[in-house]
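Lecture notes, unit on binding sites. The following record was shown on slide 14. It pairs a sequence with magnesium ion.
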Amino acid sequence: MNQYTNAVQTNDLTRHFGEFVAVDRVNFYIPKGEIFGLLGPNGAGKTTTIRMLCGIIKPTNGSGTVLGYDIRKESEAIKKRIGYMSQRFSLYDDLTALENIHFYAAVYGVPAGERKRRVDDLIDQAGLRGYEKELTHNLSGAWRQRLALACAIAHKPPMLFLDEATAGVDPVSRREFWDLIYQMAGEGISILATTHYMDEAEYCNTIGMMYQSQLVALASPDRLKDELPGTLIQITCSDPLRAEQIADQVSGVIDSAIHGVRLHVAIRDEKVLPQLKKALAQAEIKIFDMETILPSLEDVFISMVEERLQKQVNQASGG
Ligand SMILES: Nc1ncnc2c1ncn2[C@@H]1O[C@H](COP(=O)(O)OP(=O)(O)OP(=O)(O)O)[C@@H](O)[C@H]1O
Ligand SMILES: [Mg+2]
C-alpha cells in the first residue's frame, strides 16, 4: 500500500464537457480518517468531482491523488482500493441480501477462502442480521441502503465515496447509517460524502461548498457558521412569505429566507431590529415570536447561494 498523509488531494482539478466547465479549479484535501462533505445545489459539480477522483473520468486540467495514487495515471490502482456508493448503486433484485454481498466480494477480489467470513462480518456491521435470506427487491429503502453499503465496503476499502447515499431514506435510518459511517471513520477510513441533507453535513469534519463548478467555501461546520456575517433573527409571524419580501427592503438586513413556517433574517447588528419590527407592523404582519438564534448549516448554505446570485445580478446590471 502507498504511503499517504491525505486520502485525497486535488490541485486545480478541472473538468470540461465541450465548452461547459463542470468543475473549475477545485482545491481541497482530506486527511486520513476524516469525513469530508461536499455540498452544493443541483448541477454544482459534486458528482463530476467524485467521478474524477474515482478514476471513472479524466480531468481536463489540474491533478489529484487518492490514497497517494495519481488520478490520471493510476486510476486502476484507485478503483481497486476505494468504495463508491451512489444513489443509483446497482443491487441485484433477484438475489438475496447475502448473495449480493457475496457477489460484490468476488467482484472486488476478496479471496475465495476469506469470503464467507468477510460476508458474515459485513452482515453484522451493516446490521443486516435476520435479513440475509430476504430477496433484495423485498427490502425497503433503508435496508437496501445498508446492503449497498455492505457491498461497497466488501473489500475493506480505506477510502469511501458516498454520493447522495442516503437520498430518500427516512431520518432515523439516515442517522443509523451515519452512525456506521462515523464508526468507519473512527477505524481510519477516509470518507467523502455529498448530501443535500444539512443534518448529515453536520457530521463532517470539513465541508466544501460548491457553487457553479467552483469550490466557494472550505471549513469545518462550526467555522462556516461563525463566519456568517451579522446576527440571525428567527421570526414566527402571520405571513412569512410577504414578511420575507418586506424584510429584504429594510436597510441593514443582509438577507432573509423561509425555513419551514419561520423566517430567518440576517441583520447587520441589533440596531436594525426596531426598523425591522416597524416595517413588519406597517405591513400588518403579526409577529408571534422573534428571537436571536445561532445559524445552522442550512442558513450558511442558503446565504452562500443567495450571495452568489446577488453578485451575478449586480455584475449583469453593471453594478
Ligand atoms: N457527461 C456529461 N456531459 C455533459 N455534461 C455533463 C456530464 N456530466 C455532468 N454534466 C454537467 O455538469 C454539471 C455538473 O453536474 P454534476 O452531476 O457534477 O452536479 P452535482 O453537483 O452532482 O448535482 P446534483 O446535486 O444534482 O447531483 C451539470 O450541469 C451537468 O449537466
Ligand atoms: Mg450529483
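Take-home: The mean pLDDT is 94.
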